[in-house]
Amino acid sequence: MKVHLQATDLSASKTCSQVLCSKKLLLVALACLLVVCYFWPPWHHDIEYKVLSKSSERNLMFIKTHKCGTSSLVNAFYLFGIRRRLNYVVEQGLRNHNLFFTRRLAPPRPGTVYNMQCQHGTFRPDVEHQIMPKETSLYSTIVRSPVSQFKSAFSFFGVEGKMRKKYGNASIDELIGHFLDTSNKPTEYRASLGLVFNSVARDLGWSTFANKMGSATLKEKIDAFVKHLDNEMDFVMITDRMDESLIILKEYLGWNMTDIVYLNRMVSSKPKVTMSEETKARILKYHVIDAHIFDHFNASFERHLDRLGREKVASQVKEFQEMREAFENKCFDKSTTVKGPYNSISWKITDYGKNENVACTFLQTRDVILTKVITELQLSQDYTVPIQGSNGPFTMQDIVSKIQRDYNNNEDPV
């Protein structure tokens, strides 16, 4: 029995009901996950749930930030955990992005602990420390150059489209200028917070932290907040230096090179445009909290490179990029693109990606779908329940032998 899953098939059909489509999507994605659970070496039935494959490995508390390239990362993190049957911090019902209402979390398997958190959720150290103690977990997040992050959010969240309808064929500088003119300007005591302005600060818990500082100035709050984050985070990744970041993360977690392979799930279909230096300077004034956060951790990134050895990291980055490119070329037909959500495009998945290596489609699947499947698996833990597939019902046991055959015949490390 072959299990097929294409990322482009995960969007609900306009002709079917929302409920029916949701169930079908969940079942198809579940089939994919069940395949991957047993697909990659060397993690099969002999791994205990709470024991990682190497003594040097640590649990990962990853705070996912908006518009910092995290969707591709999360899929790689999910694949890492699925291979080892780890426990994720996931919310029952997925009603919103706030994960840390402990009564609504899917519990870890009996006798085990949470191993990874990588969903959106406002950083709340008092809660996170209880869920995943710092003594056994690496705390990490990712930040991005503020101008680049703003530009991505400006387009992704529909602001550019709304401004375009109002101002027609205005240049990007003019559109952003009009938007900034109608936005609240930062003052000595506050700055705007939202999906477009200072969203990294928002995701990392700025509001609660700043409110506790009362009448302090904005600069005093920012300085204290950055120091607070520096104390909480073991390592902060940089979107603009993604591959270097992943190599460093791999070293700190004790992972292998194949554990960090990712595919770019969404690529903007809009042509690249250049902003003026004046526009960039204006953005930074509004994006003031995120700008300070980025500057601090971009500087600390250099210290991590020095600690591990710049030549060592550079050598591994080269090896990793060659591996990732080779895998990507097998997964995708780069001469053919398909439309995706949110003004994005993706390459067409090859027959190899659909039929021979499930990781191709797994790494391209929307992370919200994978989160739902992981939540269901973690809640039920019953792999004997029949699953309605495209060729009829099947169970996990039905496909184990096929998975083993596929693995034995597959020479790819990914």
Structural class by secondary-structure content: alpha/beta
How many strands?
Answer: 9
> SSE string, helix = H, strand = E?
HEHEHEHHHHHHEHEHHHEEHHHEEH
What's the tally of helices?
17
Largest sheet: 4 strands, parallel
Distance between the termini: 22 Å
Return the average pLDDT rounded to an integer.
78
- Given the C-alpha coordinates, what overall shape results? globular
Output the radius of gyration: 22 Å
Instruction: Report the helical percentage.
Output: 40-55%
Order of strands, widest sheet = 2-1-3-4
How would you sum up this structure, described in words?
With 414 residues, the protein is α/β, with parallel strands linked by helices. It is 50% helix and 10% strand. It is built from 17 helices and nine strands. The chain has a four-stranded parallel sheet with strand order 2-1-3-4. The chain has a three-stranded antiparallel sheet with strand order 5-7-6. It has a two-stranded antiparallel ribbon with strand order 8-9. The two termini are 22 Å apart.
